[in-house]
Amino acid sequence: QVRLVESGGGLVQAGGSLRLSCAASGRTSGGSAMGWYRQAPGNEREFVAAISLNDGTTTNYADSVKGRFTISGNNANNTMYLSMNSLRPEDTAVYYCAWHTSIWTMKKTGNRFGSWGQGTQVTVSS
Asked: 77-107 burial string, b = 16+ CB within 10 Å, else e?
């Protein structure tokens, strides 16, 4: 089993920036992608971004965050980051770290049968 621990959430004003981190431990040898999902109150959990740990450069973003968020990762120590700029009130949500066998599988299945972190709150005030 893979254990994921997030950090870096908080409160920020609109237009501001935050950086989330996620560290993976445990049985990480079977996975090759890490990513972020978010869930706002009353909404379903939605995909935000993901990165391949195989090369550390293949990434995928939701349209709503393209150009504002940047995902990066260090496959040497299974750590992933999400740099969030130009934050908007609609970015307010609990952000969850995710782990799966591939970016495609993560997105296609909603990270079904993957691993989840406990979540970290991001609040953007207007």
From this structure: ebebbbebeebeeebbbbbbbbbbebbebbb
